[in-house]
Amino acid sequence: MASNRKLLVLPGDGIGPEVVSQVLRVVDWLAAKRSVSFDLQEGLVGGAAYDSHGTPLTDETLSDALAADAILFGSVGGPQYDDLPFELKPERGLLRLRKEMDLFANLRPAMVFDAMVDSSTLKKEVIEGLDILILRELTGGIYFAEPRGIEDLSDGTKKGFDTNLYTTPEIERIGRVAMDLARKRRNKVTSVEKANVMMSGVLWRDVMTKLFENEAHGLETEHMYADNCGMQLVRNPKQFDVIVTDNLFGDMLSDCAAMLTGSLGMLPSASLGAVDDTTQKRYALYEPVHGSAPDIAGKEMANPIAELLSFSMSLRYSFDMPEDADLIEKSIQAVLAEGIRTPDIMQEGMTLVSTSVMMDNIVSKLDRSV
Ligand code: IPM
Ligand code: MG
Q: How far is the CA of 54 from the centre of ligand 2 (A)?
């Protein structure tokens, strides 16, 4: 059956291929049981691409990415690539994809499932019912701005330097996405920077302040320094709804938010571009927040839920299939409620399962849901 849903699958390195192959079972299930098929294409990225082609992202894979409706991404990196030159490191493949596709809006929801309230290192009352969204600017700031480098100094030592840089339009466009998202949630936006120390932070606060004044009608808005935000996330995370912040602070605060939910293995993300005025198309890449976890790769220990929730986000944001996304999320909740656990979320009295057995359980819940 022909399909107009073009999904490019880039499993990458470490546990990426394991969790992606489990999620493809759900893609097959959708085709078999819900008659929705995807036009799947697979490619190499990160260390896997370097091993075959000497580069973490080939131009061919990049053009496949630009032609796809969405990308399902696994993870990149591993210790065997640590000594590669900077530009050939696995992470450069992912960063080039983000930049070339202009995926500036990175949505990282952190939700605590009822069955998981005891898995967090934080007290139950602090995280019960938690549902927050970190919106990370993904194509600017210190990850990409020039100048950057390592240079020799006259005394024989070196200096290493990076630049943090944001322009008014970059801040405005991520601010608008934050307001749009908050309107579909609990109507609150917290903008996070360090305007007390950084010039890019002063501009960020200034632009956000004006934007909120002009466009945030009816929303509750506030500004917070990034260090305080880190503290507030562990003190009282339920005070937040949407947190909008720059690339580097977003990287750190989203790992922090992930642990509120009990495990990095549970957190999905969506990286979105702007909607094209003529085609109405938007580039999109879906990936778990966790990395390649080389220490457990190949051991059937990885939790496939973050990857599956990332796929589920693609059903919402790229393929307009919210009912199917609901089915998947309900099945995950039902399996967790039965005490089925991969090692990262294992607790006393629960049933420890492998990556593929976790997915067996989710697929059988899906079977029973239709
Ligand atoms: C993330 C990761 C990446 C990042 C790495 C793998 C380049 O930590 O997506 O959070 O720093 O953005
Ligand atoms: Mg990170």
A: 24
